[in-house]
Amino acid sequence: MSSEKRRWLQTALQIKGSVVPQVLPRSLFCGVFGLLITIAFVHGHPVSMPALASLIPNIVLGLLLVFRTNTAYDRFWEGRKAWGKLVNDTRNLARQIWVAISEVTERDRADKVEALHLLVAFSVAMKCHLRQEPLGSEIKSLIQPDHFARLQGVQNSPLRVAFWIGDYLQLQHQRDRIKIHQLTEMQNLLNGLVDCLGACERILKTPMPIAYAIHLKQLILLYCLSLPFQMVENLGWWTPPVVVLISFTLFGIEAIGIEIENPFGRDPNDLPLDAICETMLKNIRDLTELRPSNHPQDLPLVATYEEQNGTHS
Fold first, then answer.
1. Using an 8 Å Cβ cutoff, are 86 and 196 in contact?
2. Tens of pLDDT along the chain (313 residues)?
3. Beta carbons of 259 and 269 less than 8 angstroms apart
4. I want to staple 19 with a disulfide (CB 3.0 to 4.6 A). Which of 102, 212, 255, 288 is the partner?
5. Which residues of 46-82 are buried (b: 16+ CB within 10 A; e: fewer)?
6. Plot region of 304 (φ>0 → left; ψ -120 to 50 → alpha; else → beta)
7. Whole-angstrom distance, CA of residue 89 vs CA of residue 220
8. Residue 127 contacts by C-beta under 8 Å, 6 or more apart in sequence?
9. Predicted TM-score of the model (pTM)
10. How far apart are CA 131 and CA 296, in angstroms?
11. How many CB atoms lie under 10 A from the CB of residue 248?
12. How far apart are CA 178 and CA 15, in angstroms?
């Protein structure tokens, strides 16, 4: 057996990250109900009703399930795109802060490092905000103690961090460390970070309409409970396992939609926000090890045409 086939089989039999624990009890319940109907049929009770097959058309239930799953995946993918844009905007803004802002005093370098840490702190605060968790040691190690104290009890901590970053950029312009067009570009990138926050908040605070969710659950339950009446005459004692199999399929598709519609938690199927924040922190640390060439004593990386060919009168 090839490694690819083994991985396929391992994935198919994997319990962690699957919806089996959620849907198996419901499927077994339907199977037990099917067993009771089968026993009643065997003892001569008139429980066979093939006409129930037209109670809920298969295509209607199928379309509802597909719509439910697609809607949930759209929310999942929109969240992933928002975090992908957040990573890119953070990298671009960090690079511009590190390279474009002039260092006149020794304090300027420390302020730039602190500003870059605020960029990572924004992502960490956004992660905690979306998970509705308190800020912990992860962000405490990135910001000043007084900043961390101010974030306690704030309703929207990432927005407060974005304010501090914007305040820093404005101050650098007032000190003539950056030009107005550089400030504008950096502010646009900072606005992009806040836009990502808003996109994720929209996903978090716009759940699936409750009427749709309730009606879909009712239809699935009615469909699964009607299966034994449709099948018992032809399948006999095979009715319970077939009902379990069909119920498992339908309940599983619905459970997948529920699992991925809010992608910001800590479940195996949620977005790897911890890993994304850790990646951004590593990127910032790598960046701060480089020395920006904005000092008079630094040589340019690429010589000018005149330096390469000499000056001609």
1. yes
2. 566 667 888 888 888 888 989 999 999 999 999 999 999 999 888 888 887 777 777 888 888 899 999 999 999 999 999 999 999 999 999 999 999 999 888 888 999 999 999 999 999 999 999 999 999 889 999 999 999 999 998 999 999 999 999 999 999 999 999 999 999 999 999 999 999 999 999 999 998 889 989 999 999 999 999 999 999 989 999 999 999 999 999 999 999 999 999 999 999 899 999 999 999 999 999 998 887 665 544 434 333 334 444 444 3
3. yes
4. 255
5. ebbeeebeeeeeeeebeebbeebbeebeebbeebeeb
6. beta
7. 44
8. 264, 273, 274, 277
9. 0.84
10. 47
11. 20
12. 55
Which two structure tokens, joined as six digits, stand for 19?
Answer: 């919806």
Q: With contact defined as beta carbons under 8 Å apart, do 114 and 305 qualify?
A: no
| Domain definitions of the chain by residue range | 21-288
**Contact yes or no for 233/48 (Cβ under 8 A):** yes
Number of CB atoms found within 10 A of residue 91's CB: 17
Token pair of 263 as six digits = 């992608």
Tokens encoding 162: 């974005």
Between CA 40 and CA 43, with CA 42 as vertex, the angle to 5 degrees is: 65
- The length of the chain, given as a count of residues: 313
